[in-house]
Amino acid sequence: MSYFDQYLKANEAYVALHGTAHLPLPPRMRVAILTCMDSRLHVAQALGLALGDAHILRNAGGRVTEDMIRSLAISQQLMGTREIVVLHHTDCGAERLTNEGFAKQLNDTLGVDVGEMDFLPFSDIVKSVKEDIAKLKASPLIPDDIIISGAIYDVDTGKMNPVSYP
Ligand SMILES: [Zn+2]
Predict the structure, then answer these.
(1) 155 C-alpha to ligand 1 centroid (Å)
(2) How far is the CA of 109 from the centre of ligand 1 (A)?
(3) Which of 55, 63, 83, 127 places its Cα 20 to 30 Å from the Cα of 72?
(4) How do residues 59-110 score in pLDDT, each as one tens digit?
(5) What is the Å distance from ligand 1's center to 154 Cα?
(6) Which of 42, 63, 54 is nearest to 153 (CA)?
(7) Domains and CATH numbers, the chain
């Protein structure tokens, strides 16, 4: 049993609330928020975002990857965003894995050898935010005048705590 039918039903109610207003494609705040896929982090609610306000880019850990850079380049060059917020969070799943351990698990359960694949785990959450900001700053695809901030979201309290850089 999948949740898909439930989602379709919930969406009917949402459509009634949404109406047919057409928002512009570029985000109103000209910001891209880079964060984790964690289900306890409701980005729009936590940061006070409305529809059309910001790009929200998510992956496991909220880490800066090649595909995040790809999305940020499109966000900035085609849709005019000028600011990035790197938002990691407490109790992240990425803190609970190691490359070696997860590679072994994949081999055991799926029979796939992923070799030296980096799943971007981290053990120090402040350091992971700083590392990702450093990666953004080092990327030739992210212009120097882009404003970059970092923060840690506390999944127990909902509070967003800034991380100073460097
Ligand atoms: Zn996470």
Answers:
(1) 10
(2) 23
(3) 127
(4) 999 999 999 999 999 999 999 999 999 999 999 999 999 999 999 999 999 9
(5) 11
(6) 42
(7) 24-163 (3.40.1050.10)
